[in-house]
Amino acid sequence: MIPGTPASVADDPPFVVERTWPPAPRSVGRARRFLALQLDAWAMPHLADTAELILSELVTNAVKHAHSPNGRVIATRLERLASGVRIEVHDSSDCKPELREASGEEESGRGLLLVDALTGGCWGVNDRSGPGKSVWAVCTHSAACGTGDATVGALR
């Protein structure tokens, strides 16, 4: 604790945490566990199931589809909001994911539909400085985007 700083301020976890991951399937589970620990630190464990599912879909997409000659490092950025958490997954591919409906015969292709449903449509794709993109989603108590936070959806 910093001398002269109230314990409630000095002991608060950071509002933003970032981490990089290797472009491997095992990163999905590790990122989920990292998110669960962070939600506990932020006193938001009630969001864990939904937030972990959202993160799983976004990291899985990055691992499977973000092939780029610029490298395949994947990064997650978690931002604590007043009513939930903003989840971002960064990769070096410029190919942007699109919401689509998979046919009944397809074994994959439903991830963003799930993210869309779980977030009440509060997700998107942003360009970033340098190569690649950021795919983000906001997970709140009500599965609605009404965070009251003007930065939701803004390029950071």
UniProtKB/TrEMBL annotation:
- Keyword Nuclease, does the record have it? no
Residues covered by the Histidine kinase/HSP90-like ATPase domain:
22-136
One Pfam family recorded for the sequence: HATPase_c_2
Q: Which UniProt keywords apply?
A: ATP-binding, Kinase, Nucleotide-binding, Serine/threonine-protein kinase, Transferase
GO MF terms listed in the record are:
ATP binding
Q: Does the keyword Transferase apply?
A: yes
Query: What name does UniProt use for this protein?
Result: ATP-binding protein
**The organism of origin for this protein:** Actinacidiphila acididurans
